[in-house]
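Re-run with default settings, no changes from the original entry. Doing this only to confirm the output is reproducible before filing.
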Amino acid sequence: MTNTASTTGARAHARSQAAAAATTEPVLPDGVEAARITFAQRIPGAGYANILLGRGTRIRLRDPAGAACAHLLLLRADAPWERLNVADTVKVPWQAYLGNGHPLLSDQGRILATVLADTSGKHDALCGPTAEARQLLRLAGAKHGLEPRDIGPTVSFFRGVRVATDGALTATGSAAAGASIDLLVHLPVILLVANAAHPLDDRAATELDVVAWAAPEELTATHNRDPEYQRAVQNTETAWAAARTLEVGK
């Protein structure tokens, strides 16, 4: 292990870390022009990322080796007190299991992101993060001036959970290597993600790919025809229009 007690040792360690990162680039989506990609990173197990994403961004989380676990929290970038509300994300759509067309909602009834595509089907909106994941999310949030109290419940991707008939929560494992899930961002958000074990599945997390690109045209498509979703879209668009009006008036 490199000795980081001296400046020379710390520099050598930092450069070795950068060299290792350069050899593990994420898989980029087919058919997306390089100029549209705004973020691309491979996150190691026990790693984290903090990403500022604009409205109309499409983000792909991918599980290259089949054992990643992405604990994800979204906070509205221009009003970070408005953040992912996992209870409403489950309650409002009448669905506890995340999949295509599922909104990730704030407690204001607005859509922070929508699930657009899912080849995994192994996700969880019931258990929340482990202590390790919560600590990683706190580190990620600190980069945006967030405090530990700002880190609330999360959703987890790539480790499945189902509810048994007796109410018990049961882990259902991971999908095959290479599974992915795409989200469309409806309002500017800070995305915090920790790649760590799940409360019901203590396997060490393997690498996680995160790639984001501009896709504003997706906002005009209908991703879910349920009345609850459509009402949330209306709430979101009204809030966005108001925010733009205030910005122009400054």
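Residues 227-249 form the longest helix (23 residues). The chain has a mean pLDDT of 93.
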